Amino acid sequence: MPRHKGDHDARRRDVSAAVWHVLATYGFGGLTLRAVAAEMGATTGLLTHYFPSKKDLVAHALTLLDEHRAARPRRTAPEGLAALRAVLMDILPLTRQTAADNRIWVGSWDAAMADPDLAAGHAARYARSRERIRHHVEAAQRLGELPKSDPADLAVAIQSFALGLIVQALLDAEEFPPQQQIRLLDGYLATLATTAGDL
Q: Which of 98, 94, 74 has the alpha carbon at shortest distance from 86?
């Protein structure tokens, strides 16, 4: 591992790169101080300077995942239903990269369920996602593309559909290839356009 004496930020970047590589290769199940240290060619003692516990390591990994996903290029579309579709397309595992990101994310659920602080962080992330979805739902309703209904409730339903589709696509990629995911998404949105007012 390169030495960066006196350069805490550079060393932390090295550590973050190693954490991300372990995540991408082994998922959250393989994320341990030992695995990250091996990736860096360092000792676990060095890592405990940055992550005193496994919980700290997992929290850092989730931050890296947030940053990685935020840095990805996003689809753009006109306001309304098209923008809502674009947001959902961005989170589905339609490419090798988004599939890898989603595998890491779904793999983190077990760790989050076992720790109240991590669970609260996940809940906050999903709340932010629902808020983005709600914003696009309201725009589509203003444009007459979706019937009037409670946009917050509809955002919950849409997020739940997307999460369910993600899990199925990760578990059975042959049954849910990208074109099938897109077909199901478009069918779901078309159904909402005619039935959302009855929800």
A: 74
Please choose, from the candidates 16, 13, 11, the residue with its C-alpha nearest in 3D space to the C-alpha of residue 31. 16
Could you read off the pLDDT of 126-152 as tens digits, one per residue? 999 999 999 999 999 999 999 999 999
CA distance 188 to 105: 24
Give the mean model confidence (pLDDT) for residues 13-37: 85
User: Mean pLDDT, the chain, as a whole number?
Assistant: 88
Within 10 angstroms of residue 67's Cβ, the number of other Cβ atoms is: 11
pLDDT given at position 125: 92
Query: How many CB atoms sit inside 10 A of residue 161's CB?
Result: 16
pTM value is: 0.82
CB 109 within 8 A of CB 122: yes
Q: What are phi and psi of 6, to 5 degrees?
A: 75, 5
Alpha-carbon distance of 4 to 13, in angstroms, equals 11
In angstroms, the first-to-last Cα distance of the chain is 57
**Hey, what amino acid is at 72?**
R
Q: Which residues of 39-60 are buried (b: 16+ CB within 10 A; e: fewer)?
A: bbebeeebbeebbeeeeebbbb
